[in-house]
Structure formats: C-alpha cells, structure tokens
Prior knowledge:
The protein is 31% helix and 24% strand. The protein is built from five helices and 13 strands.
Amino acid sequence: MIRAKPLPKRPPQPLPLDVALMNTLSMVLGGVFAAMLVALAFAWLMRQPLFNLSAIEVQGDLTHNNAVTLRANVAPRLAGNFFTLDMARARAAFEAVPWVRRAVVQRDFPGRLKVVLQEHQAVAYWGAEGDSRLVNTDGEVFEANQGDVDAEDLPLLNGPPGQAARVLQLYQMLSPMFEETGAGLEQLKLTGQGSWRARLDSGAAIELGHGSQDEIQARVRRFIATLTQVASRYGKDIESADLRYGNGYAIKLRGVTTGNAGDQNDGKMKR
Length: 271
C-alpha cells in the first residue's frame, strides 16, 4: 500500500492592506460608538431628579449669620446638581457672604451639600473713621456692617494697602505699654511715607516717627517712663507728644503755656 505524503503547511497569508484598514477602522468606530453610548447614558443619569440638590447643611461659626439666611441667599447662586455643581464657585458664593472668612464645601451623596464656615474675628476698624472695613485676628481686611460688631471699643488702624497685618502687630505691642499708664491706645496709623502716628483715648496725638518696631517700642518705653512724672508735676493732661527726637521727646500739655506772651499758646516742653 502506498501512503500519500501530507502536504506541507503554508504560512498564513497577510490580509490585503485595504481589508486590514477596514477591520481597524471598524474596531475604532465601534469603540467610539460604545464610548458615546456610555457618555450619553452617564449624562442622562446625572440629569435625573434623584441627584438634584435637596439640602444644604451649614456648620461652624454662625455668630453673625444663621443657617436659614445663608441657604436662602446662597442657594439661588448654585447652578447644577450633585455631580455638575462647580465646587469652586460654590465655595466663593459662601465666602462672599459678610463675615465669612472661609468655607469648606463637600458633597454628601446623593443630593446634599455640607458646608463648614469660619467667620472673621474682628479686632479693629480699618481706614478712615466711618469706613465699613475691619481687621481680623490674622491682619486681614474685610468688609462688614459695623453695626454687627460685637465689641464697642475696637481701635482704629490705618495704613497703605497690604500693611494691615504690620499695623496690627505694632498695635498689639504698644497697647499693653500704654495701658500700664492707664491710657488706652485708640488709633494707630502708618502713613504713606512710613511714619507712625498714634492717638490715645484721652485725645492726645503722638508722633512716633520712622523706624523698626523695636525702635518705636524703645521710644514709647522712654516716653512712658517719665510721662507720669511730667503729668503729676504740672497736673495737666497731655495734648500731644513728639517722640521723633534722638534723646528725648517734646510734649504739649493742655492749659500750660511757656515762653513770652507771643508764645503763650504754644505750651511745648522738651524732655
């Protein structure tokens, strides 16, 4: 019997180029179509009423605001639902409310927002008298209704833009020094030329001059060291003082005159 020999296997032939391109194009188009279907389904799902914002929970500092008023004022400015809401804009909407310094906004599935507020803690007025600006404990200037300020004896600070923290820092250094004499530091101002001016609750105006905080403190310390002695000697209150001298200061006492008749309204003395 004669056995037939098996024919040798032929290597697979590559597909024609046009057929390969058609197959690849079909796969790509199929993938794109599937992705579009998924995207459309997801977009449809996100628009369902189930994910509408149904509640806003407000926590944190609520001394000058209340949750009901906040929700009523901010809710109309929130566009979108649980998924599509722009969180940065939502945070900005809450931080635009008076007295709100910082807001942390979080999603709470499926349709709630949780908001934690931090309010400004006012420690001083800022700017000219009657201005609506205030300074918080971090030296930040903010706008608010002064009628909502809890404390009635806040000092008035002033200075060039961006210098509120510096002015507040020097005020916090000088205020205890004046309190030791029974006087209150009512105003502190940094001029555009870099000179410091103060006013006490008695109405006395004090020129502090230029220099670093240490230099200003040294002048005030020297002034306070002899202030009681001078006031008791003449039995008068200080109307103004100039501490810009290198080794002393000049003061003007209420009702005290010096020199000849032509100078009797001057009332200035140097220490």
